[in-house]
Design a protein that fits this description.
The protein is of the alpha/beta class. The chain has 2 domains: about 200 residues, Periplasmic binding protein-like II (D-Maltodextrin-Binding Protein, domain 2, 3-Layer(aba) Sandwich); about 100 residues, Periplasmic binding protein-like II (D-Maltodextrin-Binding Protein, domain 2). The chain has 15 helices and 10 strands.
Length: about 325
């Protein structure tokens, strides 16, 4: 939306996960303001709830994890396009894991859960229509098991930590900061890092809706310049200014923010489209998607292309206090 004074108002979403840190930095460090952008944060309980509002023009940008519903909407003609990385699985030899399977502490300490084959009979905090089902299927594949060998428990994401602590589920996929918090509180142990069984998975990205894809592409370009500058700052790592900005926006203790494993997000903003093609193949096999859509229909790299010659952020050696 263009305001009377020329300001571009962008409606988007921010949840309490570390993969939203580039958006936090884009606002708090002035990258959006530099491009004449004012952000309106729209409250949502989970990113998937924003897909329909995005397709209807009630949101402009949606940071989202991968869902079959996105590709179903695009296949039906919705003007939705993935435009930038917001988080992917690290390579298998990464120093830490932003996202891991965690299990109840007693399951690991007792020796009940050691290898992937040991997940037989356990209660997973996910369902066929929620985030985490794809990862569960990949884990089952490694274990030589099927979905019938585990119990799926449909737990809302905002109470997943409480459900694990109460013993209502046995195992779940958890990302930062909840991963470190759950382990610190003692009721869960990290069991299997994400990258150990799905390296390079493109699990999260930014999506532009029709207001930026069709109606005002210049506004989309301005947003992307700010986001790309924020990505460059984010990839400086746990610098003092990055820690301070993220801690203030999330109300997390700065010491905790410094300890977290930061989500891998490419400074270039590019996404792994091949992985998303493979994801759709899996979704079709599961009956969650009727047919796949090709990268030229779900990916628009032109906004990132525009940023290559106009990005303004440069690394600051005085703040390069990386972990």
């Amino acid at each position: 939306e263009r305001l009377a004074d020329g300001t571009i108002r962008i409606r988007t979403v921010r949840l309490n996960y570390l993969s939203y840190a580039p958006l936090i930095l884009a606002e708090s460090q002035g990258h959006f303001a530099e491009q004449g952008i004012e952000i309106e944060w729209v409250p949502l309980n989970r990113a998937a709830d924003g897909l329909l509002p995005l397709s209807q023009g009630d949101l402009d940008v949606l940071p989202c994890i991968v869902y079959p519903g996105l590709f179903n909407l695009i296949r039906r003609g919705a003007a939705l396009r993935i435009v930038a990385d917001k988080g992917h699985t690290a390579d298998g030899d990464a120093d830490c894991s932003y996202m891991s399977y965690v299990a109840r502490t007693e399951l690991i300490e007792s020796g009940r859960l050691k290898t992937p084959a040991d997940i037989r009979g356990l209660r997973f905090g996910t369902s066929r229509t929620r985030a985490g089902f794809y990862e569960a299927c990949k884990l089952l594949e490694i274990a030589g098991l099927t979905v019938d060998d585990i119990e799926l428990v449909n737990v809302p994401q905002n109470v997943i930590m409480q459900s694990l602590a109460a013993g209502n589920i046995d195992i779940t996929l958890m990302g930062e900061p909840h991963l470190t918090q759950a382990i610190s509180e003692g009721y869960a142990r990290e069991w299997l890092p994400f990258q150990s069984f799905i390296p390079g998975h493109q699990h999260s990205f930014l999506i532009f809706g029709p207001t930026l894809i069709e109606e005002d592409r210049d506004a989309g370009s301005a947003f992307m310049v700010a986001y790309r500058n924020a990505l460059l700052q984010y990839n400086e790592g746990a610098t003092e200014r990055n820690i301070a900005a993220i801690a203030e926006a999330t109300t997390l203790d700065p010491a905790l923010v410094a300890r977290l494993c930061w989500a891998p997000v490419r400074a270039s903003g590019r996404v792994n489209t091949d992985d998303l093609v493979g994801y759709q193949k899996w979704a079709i096999e599961q009956g969650l998607l009727d047919e796949s859509v090709t990268p030229d229909r779900f990916w628009d790299g032109s906004f990132l292309d525009h940023t290559d010659s106009v990005i303004t952020h440069r690394s600051d050696p005085e703040h390069a206090n990386e972990r």
